[in-house]
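Data deposition worksheet. Section B asks for the primary sequence of the deposited chain exactly as it was used as input, without tags or linkers unless they were present during the calculation. Section C holds the resulting structure in token form. Section D is free text for depositor observations; keep each observation to a single sentence. Incomplete worksheets are returned to the depositor.
Section A, Depositor: J.P.
Section B:
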Amino acid sequence: METKLEKKYGLITAIAMVVGIVIGSGVFFKAEKVLNATGGNLTLGILAWIIGGIIMISCAYTFAVMATKYEHVNGVVDYAEASMGEKYGYYVGWFMALIYYPTLTSVLAWVSARYTSVLFGFSITGGECMTIACLFLISSYALNALSPILAGKFQVSTTVIKLIPLFLMAIVGTIVGISNGMTVYNFTTIVKEVNTSNALFTAVVATAFAYEGWIIATSINAELKNAKKNLPLALVAGTFIIMLVYILYYVGLAGAVTNEVMMTGGEAGAKLAFQTIFSDIGGSLIFVFVIISCLGTLNGLMLGCTRGLYSVAERGFGPKANIFKQIDSITNMPTNSSIFGLLLCGIWLLFFYGANLTEPWFGFFCFDSSELPIVTIYALYIPIFINIIKKEKDFNFFNRYIMPVAALAGCVFMIVAACFSHRMAVVAYLIIFAIVMAIGTMFGQKQISKSL
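Section C:
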């Protein structure tokens, strides 16, 4: 008799999963960039968080409706395959394995090291920081490869811990800021004048990093009670809560230190904000929670990274599919895929350092690998949403037309925003992207598994 996944999760659990998966390092990492992009204009910054949140919510809802039809589908690769065919699914999986997961995982290793360096007074671009980043990268790989159960427990623990600094700063920072006038000062003072449209585009693209991850939550649909009703509710409610928490945290920071300090101080400014509100000791302790939150996000991304080529090989595509889909009998991990994933993380970490943290090593081919791969995901969503509008005749008008069109508009906005924000760096990225995908075409023929 075939064993099937049980319907064991309710609506509240599903909402908690969405919130836990998405909330992580992004809001800590990108709050400073949003503030700098908008010239210290808090109102414009909040608008950027709202626009990014609405794009996330519309895309999440559209995928949630699709998930209720394809109930055993999980992950963006499977959605692409179900909607557009297995070849499109393969190319999405190839992109995820070689660019998306390793670029974001390497950036998260550096972000975790960056905050650790601030805590101990090291340079955020020096050798100490990069050494710590490599250590975090290897440790996260080892945790996932050698003890997946322990890695899962670590992920659950950090989900709880990551909410502590956000809620404390959002609530206490706002109260203190209103009482001492700091919040009013920051809302009424613009540090520097900026071009509003360009500033908004740059800020929205920055929020994409903080909002990424909601697509993973759709993988629980086969285990969700009354999934047709609860999954759309969970994704909409969960993503709305995320947007609200991020905005409140952003406002809370404005109650702790001036915009000028946050814009020039970066991570040191965030640390000072926590210390101003909660004292030196309390602020440093909460800042440790920020680091743990970053490490939790790194752990989750590493989990995806180690399974990148496996997800492709398991479908019979990619180089040496029979090798990369092998599962270790002891750890129950795709060992070959994991090692390749770690190697890619190391390469992309080196690129991130040479392109963004020192004198540019790569000339024209320097771009921000923390943002452009995420924008690519939005571009890859577009054919899926168009296909829903064209083919899903059993959906009602709202689900077939209104939300997919809203999601499409959000994806197009994100692409346009990226072009305005990164300009020629987009061209450099697209050349690298085209090369990687061209290599992928060499392995686009489905392989027949050989019996041993």
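Section D:
The mean pLDDT is 85.
The longest helix spans residues 267-306.
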